[in-house]
Amino acid sequence: MTQSVDQKASAAASATNEWLTAFQKALTARDADAAAALFADESYWRDIVSFTWNITTVEGGAGVADLLRATLDDVDPVGFRVTEEPTEEDGVITAWIAFETKAGRGSGLLRLVGGKAFTLLTTLDELKGHEEPINDRRPNGVRHGAFRDRVTWAESRAREATELGYTVQPEVLIVGGGQGGIALGARLRQLGVPALIVERNERPGDSWRKRYKSLALHDPVWYDHLPYLPFPANWPVFSPKDKIGDWLEMYTKVMELNYWGSTACKSAVREGDGWVVVVDRAGEEITLRPRQLVLALGASGLPNVPEFPGREKFRGDQHHSSAHPGPDKYKGKKAVVIGSNNSAHDICAALWEAGADVTMVQRSSTHVVRSDSLMDLGLSDLYSERAVAAGMTTFKADTIFASLPFRILHTLQIPVYNAIRERDAEFYHRLEQAGFVLDFGEDDSGLFLKYLRRGSGYYIDVGASELVANGDVKLAEGQVVELTEDEVVLDDGTRLPADLVVYATGYGSMNQLASDIIGQDMADKAGKVWGLGSGTTKDPGPWEGELRNMWKPTAQEGLWFHGGNLALSRYYSHYLALQLKARMEGIPTPVYKRAEVYHTE
Amino acid sequence: MTQSVDQKASAAASATNEWLTAFQKALTARDADAAAALFADESYWRDIVSFTWNITTVEGGAGVADLLRATLDDVDPVGFRVTEEPTEEDGVITAWIAFETKAGRGSGLLRLVGGKAFTLLTTLDELKGHEEPINDRRPNGVRHGAFRDRVTWAESRAREATELGYTVQPEVLIVGGGQGGIALGARLRQLGVPALIVERNERPGDSWRKRYKSLALHDPVWYDHLPYLPFPANWPVFSPKDKIGDWLEMYTKVMELNYWGSTACKSAVREGDGWVVVVDRAGEEITLRPRQLVLALGASGLPNVPEFPGREKFRGDQHHSSAHPGPDKYKGKKAVVIGSNNSAHDICAALWEAGADVTMVQRSSTHVVRSDSLMDLGLSDLYSERAVAAGMTTFKADTIFASLPFRILHTLQIPVYNAIRERDAEFYHRLEQAGFVLDFGEDDSGLFLKYLRRGSGYYIDVGASELVANGDVKLAEGQVVELTEDEVVLDDGTRLPADLVVYATGYGSMNQLASDIIGQDMADKAGKVWGLGSGTTKDPGPWEGELRNMWKPTAQEGLWFHGGNLALSRYYSHYLALQLKARMEGIPTPVYKRAEVYHTE
C-alpha cells in the first residue's frame, strides 16, 4: 500500500517536472506555440499580474500562445519549479509552483490531466527590490545606538499625520474605509506606498456598528482573516457586528494606516497623470492630489429604490434597507419588507424579534442556503478548523479557490449544491410549502456563483427562514404596483397595511455609486463593476472571463476598484497593491488586453 | 546515514516508551519508590499545577517519592505517553509527553540520560469540563435562529460593564493593568472566570506611553507575544513604547477585558473567604468584593531612593528613574545619573541625545550584554525567525525553557555568556578602558540568571554603552556621600556639578509595594517576591527552587502575585488562571508544600 502511494507520488512528480521543464524550455526559447501545445484543448491559464499586469484568464492553446507572444520578452520568465511534492487524485495532478520574472517573483498552482495542463494559475508574489519587510525582514523598530537626530516612532507617526494630505500628497487615495479600504491600506503600507484612506463615517468599523443590532458576519472566521493579522484562536465563528467593528478599528491603528474618518469625498477630477480630489474632512474642505485613485465603496453600490407610484403619499416610515435604523421603534407595528434576499431576511427577522408584525414581499425567486450547510459542504475543505488542522493555510485556500477557472466554476459547484439540496430537503420543502419561491441559481450552481455574477439574489440562512417557513413572518408574492397612504398594493390586488416599508431592493453597480465623485462620464467610461458576463440575470454577456473592473486596470488610467467579501478583499488587495507599487516605482507595467467595457451599469 | 538517523530515532522511541511504561505502572500501583527509582541521582521534576497545585521542583529520587506519596491518590495520573517522536542528542533523549489526571489533562517534557529521568516537566493544560472555547471549540458568536429575547454581543458587553464591580462582584480582582494583568485577564476570560482589572493610569498601555521617548522593548518580538493573539508578521523586532502601548490597548479591547483605568487601589482587607477592596475610580470610591486578589504591579516594585545626606539642600531637579519625565528640558544642563543598570543607561543615552551634559555614577558592577548578541546567542534557538521557520512554536519554546531546572540553569548559561564575552571582546575591552566595572553575574552565568535572581544589575545594550566607552557619557565610580546645593559628592572626594540628579537606584520587592494596599503585616506575611534563593547579591538563601511567590499559592490564602517579562507573563498566566478557575469551580486543589517565607523584602 505504502509503495503504491509512493509510486503515485513519484509519477506525479515526474510528470510535473517533465511538463515544467518543457514549459520553461519553450518560454526561454520564446516559442509560444510550443508552450501552447502543452495545454489541453480545454484549458485555462489565469494570470494575476505576473505576466499580464492584469487579472486575466486565457483559454486553450490559442489563448496561451497569444498571451505569451504579447508578454514573453518583457516578462522573461525563468525558474519554473515545484515548491512541494505534487499530488495526484482521480487523474488530476496538482502542483504548487514558483518562478521568477524580470520584475518579480511569482508562484501558482498547476493542474495536469493526461500530461497536459488543464489549469494554470500564476500570481505575482513580490517585486524584486521591493520585498515586504515581513518575517525575517521585519523592521527593527528602533534605531539602536545613540543619535542626536533621533526621531521616534511616535514622532514619525505624528509627523505623518500632520503632513499627509496637506504638505505631502499620498501616492494612493482610497475612497472608502470599510474592510476593503483597510485591507488595501495595510498592503500598501507594507510596500512603502504612501496611502490615505478617507471614510465618511467617523471611526473605522462604523459601517458595521451602525447596522441593526442582531447583525453578524455570515461568513465563518477562517474565511474572514485580514492580511497579516488573522483573527485569534478564541475569535467566534461569526463575528457580531460590533466585534468586527472593534477589530477593524484596532487593525487600522496597529497597522498604522492613515485614515481620515468623518471625511466625505466630494469630487475627483483627472489632472495630468494624477487626480485632484476634493474632500470634506469634518467640515474642512481639503484638496488632495493622489496619483492613483482607488474606489472601495463597498460591494453594495448605489441603493436601488424602485419608483413605485404613491411613494409620496405613504404616511408611514419608508427607507431602503441600507438606511434601516433597526427594529426598535416598530414593536407592535406593521412592517412590510419589499424583497427576499439577504437584507430582507435579516431585517424581517430583526423586526420579528422586536415584536413587529412582519410581511415579506417576494418579487422574484431567491436562493437560500443554510449557514451550517454552506460551512460544512461549501467551505470546510478550505476554510475551517478541520482544514487548518490538516495543514491548510489561508493563503493556500485562497490560491486554490483563485485557481478554479470562472468558466467552469459552476460545474464544480453544482454537485455541492445538489448535496446541500439533499441534506436540507426537509427545510426546503417547508419553505416551499409556505409559498416561498426558491432557486439554486439559474444553472443550480448555487450561492457563490450568484455572488460572483450579480452579488445578490440569495440569503445565507441564519434563522429568518424558519420564521418564513412557520408563518411568523408572513409572505406575499408578486410585484408592487403602488403605495397608498397606509398600504402596499400588489399586482394581484393584495393590500398590505403598513406602518413601515423597507425597500430591500438591492443596489446598483459601484461605478454608478462612484458617479457622484468621478462624474457620470467617467463612471460610464469605467463601466459596470462586478459580474462575469455569464448571461444570467443581472449579469449580461458577453463573457468577461474575470470580474468586471475589480482589482485591475480599468478604462480610466489611474482609477481602480477594490472590494469583495473579506476573503476576496484579503487575497486581491495584495495584487492590487503590487500594481500600484510598480507604478510608483516606475516599473514598466504593460497591460495585456485590458478588459473592454460592454455595460455602464 | 539515513539508517543511522532512523536507528537513533527508534532507540530513543523505545527507551522513552520503556521509561513511560514503567513510570505509569508505578503510578498506577501507587508505588512512589518504584517511580523514584526511575530518576537519576541528580534529577529534577518540575510540576506546574498538574500534580501539586503549585509550581514546584523536587530533586532526586527522594524528592520524587515524597511528591508522589503526597499527591498520587488525589491526582490519579494516567495515560503517560509521547506526543511526537522523541529525539536524541549527545546522550540525552528529549520527549514531549502528555497525560491525564483526575481533574485535567497535562503535557510536558522529559529528558532521559542512561535510561533514567534527568529532568521531567509536567504542566496542567486544561481542566476537564472546563476546556477553553478555542479553535474547534471557539464560540459561535451569534445565536443563529430567531429569538424574541435576543441579547446581542454588544448588549451583553454593555451590561457587563454596568454590572461588574457594582451589582455583580468579580471572582478575581487584578490590581495592575500592565501587560501582566492584561495577559492574565485574557486567560481568565477564556476560562469563564469573571475578572476585573484596575489600573491607575487612564488607558491600557499608558505605563509605556508615559516613559521617555526613545524607549523601546529590549526583548525581540518572538519572545514577546501575548496569549492567543501573537504580534503579526510585519511587527518590528523591538516595539517602540507607543506602539506596544497601542497593542496593549487594542488587545484589552478585542479580548473583551473588563478594565478600569484611572483607578487606584486604596486598600484590600481579608474578609471571610474573600476580600474587601476599596478603589478610587476616577474620583469615585467603590468597594469590590472579589474572592481572589492578584497583584500584578510590575516587576519593578517600590522605587528605592537612597537617603543621601543633603538631598533636601539640592536645588536642581531630582527624582527616581521611574519618575523621570524624559530629557527634553535638560539640553545644555548638567545631569548626574546615580546607577549603572538598565534605567541608568537608557536615561543617560536619552539625556545625551537631547544635548545634556551627562555623568553616570557607577556604584557597583554591572553586567552588560549587547542586544544583538543576546538575540543571536541567547535566544535564537527558541525565539527568532529562524526558530519559527524551523518549526518552533512559542508554546514549545516556553516549555523548553520552563523545563530547565533552576538549580542547574546557570551551568547551561555559562557557555552562552562565555561565547558572548568572546564575540564582543573588543566592545567589553573599550568599556573597561573607559573605567566601567563589568561583571557577567557572580558565577558568570549572565543576564537571565541575574534577572531571575534579582531582577536587576544588568543592561541590555541598545546604544548607551558606546557613549560610555567613548566618553560622551562621563563615568564616575564610587559611592555617593552627600548632595550639596548643586553637586553630587562621591566618597573619593569627586564633586559632580548637577542641575539634575536621577536616582536610577532600583526597586524593592513587589510585596513591599503592595503594603500600601494589603498592609504591612500581610505584605510581610506573604514575603519577598521574586528571586531564587541563590545566595548571590540581593537573592539571599536558602534555596527556594522556584521564583518566590510568583504565579502560585502564597502564605496568604486568596492572595496571588502575577508578573514577569512578556514571555514569563504569557506562559505563567495560563497556569495561574487554571488555579483560579479550579478554586472558582470548587475543584479540590490540595497544595503540595506551599513555599515557606524566609524573607520579607
In terms of topology, how is this protein built?
The structure is a homodimer.
Chain A: H1 2-28, H2 32-36, E1 39-48, E2 55-59, H3 60-75, E3 78-82, E4 87-89, E5 92-100, E6 104-113, E7 116-127, H4 153-163, E8 172-175, H5 179-190, E9 195-198, H6 206-209, H7 221-224, H8 241-254, E10 259-260, E11 263-271, E12 274-281, E13 284-288, E14 292-295, E15 317-320, E16 334-338, H9 342-353, E17 357-362, E18 366-370, H10 371-379, H11 385-389, H12 394-402, H13 406-423, H14 425-433, E19 438-439, H15 447-454, E20 458-461, H16 464-469, E21 474-477, E22 480-483, E23 487-490, E24 495-497, E25 500-503, H17 510-513, H18 515-526, E26 559-561, H19 566-584
Parallel strand pairs in A: 1-7, 8-9, 8-14, 9-10, 14-26, 15-25, 16-17, 16-25, 17-21, 18-19, 18-20
Antiparallel strand pairs in A: 1-2, 3-5, 4-5, 5-6, 6-7, 11-12, 12-13, 22-23, 23-24
Helix pairs in contact in A: 5-19, 10-13
Strand runs of chain A, count: 26
Helix content of chain A: 25-40%
Question: Greatest chain-chain interface?
Answer: A-B, 62 and 62 residues
Largest sheet of chain A: 7 strands, mixed
Q: How much of the residues of chain A is beta strand, in percent?
A: 15-25%
Number of helices of chain A: 19
Q: What would the principal axes of the Cα set say about the shape of chain A?
A: globular
Low-confidence spans of chain A: none
What is the structural class of chain A?
alpha/beta
Oligomer state of the chains in this structure: homodimer
What separation lies between the terminal Cα atoms of chain A?
57 Å
Radius of gyration of chain A: 25 Å
Mean pLDDT of chain A: 95
